[in-house]
Amino acid sequence: MSLYILFAASMNLFALGNSVVKFNGLNYADWSEQIQFQLGIYDLDLAIVMDEAPPAITETNTADDKSLYEAWKRSNRLALNLMRLSMDENVKPSMPKTDNAREFMNILKEYSHSDITDKSIVGTLMSELTTKKFDWSQPIHDHVTGMINLAARLKTMGMEVNESFLVQFIMNSLPPKFGQFQVNYNTIKDKWNLQEIKAMLVQEEGRLKKVRIILFT
């Protein structure tokens, strides 16, 4: 096989890996469905659909046996690579130690329902929620919505974040340019709920952008 063909195959596999949702320990159903769909499109799902790997080739095997084995071996290798490429960083340390694609997928199915997974993901989500920072790469509305969604995911795993704590996490995520906003928030008697703080932050973001435009014109 030429180096060009090997390079093209690697690039196609990398592209497939980026098109599949990352397995994070909670989304096995969606992840496995997308993996099987992508492998099926490229006729690489043989190792996933066969209950067992075909026996190793010997001198007594027929041409059909050899063809089946080679097709399975290629499917198994590429399916494993695709699944490993689509692992989220927080679950990679617990990646199955097997060279069988079907077994790899079955282990992940069991893993997705384990207490170990829940604890690991809860820790990751909680860390992300408490350290997240607004960096102007997206609208403040989307930033706040993302933090609310993180809290919602934690709630589905039995870790409910009190609304007042979540509001404080959002306030802590703001950069120095929101300093006056934070001072005003801390001086008011009534605390805002999530919808109120989202609306007020959108308003403050607009004000800061206008100030910046004036300063640079």
From TrEMBL:
<protein>
    <recommendedName>
        <fullName>UBN2 domain-containing protein</fullName>
    </recommendedName>
</protein>
<feature type="signal peptide">
    <location>
        <begin position="1"/>
        <end position="17"/>
    </location>
</feature>
<keyword id="KW-0732">Signal</keyword>
<dbReference type="Pfam" id="PF14223">
    <property type="entry name" value="Retrotran_gag_2"/>
</dbReference>
